[in-house]
Amino acid sequence: MTLQPENVGLGGVLRPGVWSPMVVTLQNQSSVIRQVRLQWVHPDADGDQVVNQRLIKALNPQRVERFWLYACLPVSSRMKDRYEIRLVDEETGKLLQSQRYELPEVAPQYGHVIGLVGFNPLGLNGYAHEYCQHEKALILQGLSPDAMPDRWYGLSLLHSLIWSPDGGDVSTLPRAAVPAIHEWVRRGGHLVVVLPNGLETWSKSELADLLPAVTMTTLTNQRLPMWLGRAQGLREPTISLRVLTPDTSRPESREVSTLLSTNEGFPVVVASPYGLGRVTLIGIDLTERAVVTSGLPNGNELWKAVYGWEAMWMPKAVAEQAVQSQQMNNPVSRAVHSLDAFIPSRIAKTETAAPALLLAIIIFALYWLIAGPISYAYLKSKGKLHYSWMAFLVVVAVFNVIAWGGAVLLRPRTAALQHVSILTHETGTGWTRTHSWLATFIPRFGRVPINITPPDGLGNFTTVTTSGVLDSDETNTFLDPQSYTVDTMNPADREVPMRATAKEFEIDYATRLVAGGDGLSKDWVPPQGTLRNDDGFPSGALVHGFPADLTDAFVVYSPGNGQSPWAWRIGTWAVGSALKFEGKLPSNAVRMLTPPPPNREAWGGFLGQLFYDRKPGWGTLMGFAGGQAMQQSPTTNASDQEIYAVEAMTFYDALPAPDTKPRDMQNFTDLPLTVIRSAGRIYDLTEQLALRRVLIIGHIRDGPLPVPLKVDDRTLPSRGWTVVRILVPVE
414-448 as b/e, with b when 16 or more CB fall inside 10 Å? Predict the structure, then answer.
């Protein structure tokens, strides 16, 4: 038997805390069919050893075969550890082969990762640094169709996947990767397809159902659209392009949004939803010779339309020169705030140990006082110091009984679960994705089964990890590290070691949520009702049956077709009450974002006021003046800053770019602000703003976990904070 790991990570890149794929090549050099287990071994956040494995039932003799394997490496400073690949005989349990390897390129915790099937960077290099934006983009160029993983979570590293004509024909995509891409997009992924100049095979491929409902018409000898940027050279070339017109014979065409058109008004960049995700179609071959030789695309118009970025497009060399000439500040001189820093403290079960620890300190203090100065003073006053040792032994015995008895009485006896969750629901299809971070306490030692059973007919697309939430310099591990296995093809089920203390998990669950639950608690009844387009504005009413009122709620209406969205706060949306839309904007509606006026740095609109007036993470240091639409303060148990951080992460890509003007480094209260997120990348809904729909975001405090999780074969009592996001198409 020979074993060789290849393509560790997606495109040779992996990120701690995110599922990573690996291709392993096996060769059975014997003359018999072998049944083996292929294993990827690494530590988890607690130092226990995770054995990610898949069973290979028939490894054919004298053949070389390739297999996918998946793992979620720990979010910790231990990323320099070596990792191991093993091959174990299923019948005998004998280790056949093992190989240790160094990790490949590790993507930073902060930053976009864009997968590019192709080699031309398509002008995205202008975003591959932090000089003009909150986080840089890492472009994984050179991905090939045959390198696409066969499970959706193998793509979870990606912010988006761009399929460029120079990356290979879609017909060469392996059959096993087709459902993986479908599920990745359905869960919120963004697929960008750049159509080739020649033969187009996408509309006849196995991914054709993902594409927007359009008809494609080829036009030749067309001028370059201005939004591609400024062309280099004296003569402006002409190109061929595809006009993408909504196909009105198909009902789903009403959800197609035109993002960019030619100079003559023909739509060539369009987008439509697929589940909770989005697919964008670009009708201009950005790898065509005439485009490339003209130095296009450049500028930020194209990718702003596609991704909603407000960042300034600038080549890195130009930005570095601007910093050296003091025309721009250096990112290292900006104040940095992590928007998702609250998650670990929200799930930490500190109340489990804090009271007992305080009582233990008090008992120890009493023991020290009574065994020492108090007993000594008492015996001396009675003239019986010769009984000191006997008194000391009595005190020790009494306090031993008190300590042991108190420990037994105070020991937590009830299993419990605390969580922070994001539930995103699309009312048109019923698709719902829940992403949860949680801490589970089981008051016993031993192996505890953790499993999630999906509703019938939906397959098993759920993932459970124990990799930790955020990176930290601290290393807290158990003194008795243990090993446990995870089926890499079914990562929702596992048995983990418990030590009568809390263990953290991260869960990604998807279902088709309808009235009655379908996999979730029956209390989670999704919103009922429809919204219609009434002269350009939504009209209708919605009623929800979630377990509690949605507090601190706000509404975003996106007209689609590249038009600027509107936002307004509604306060609390009570269970069973109608949220009405009357075909017009409410009086407190503001634009989602408006650029700053001349000679001013502060942006306006909903996000501008949130970013500049609220200053996420800075509290009263930067002030909370707010505008008219922001005067209604949150009233839940969550702090104001946590609510604002969630709102900023929800539309992170649309936030105003950081102020790049040079500043006086001695005035620390006026530093430009940069906001970052790591685990919180999953919050972002910016790409939904390009589609015609209504978005409602609210919060449920102290609600149950919206995932059908079984721990130790039972549903544990749970409480926590759920951020609810509802996507409503406008018919």
Answer: ebbbbbbbbbbbbbbbebbbbbbbbbbbbeeeeeb
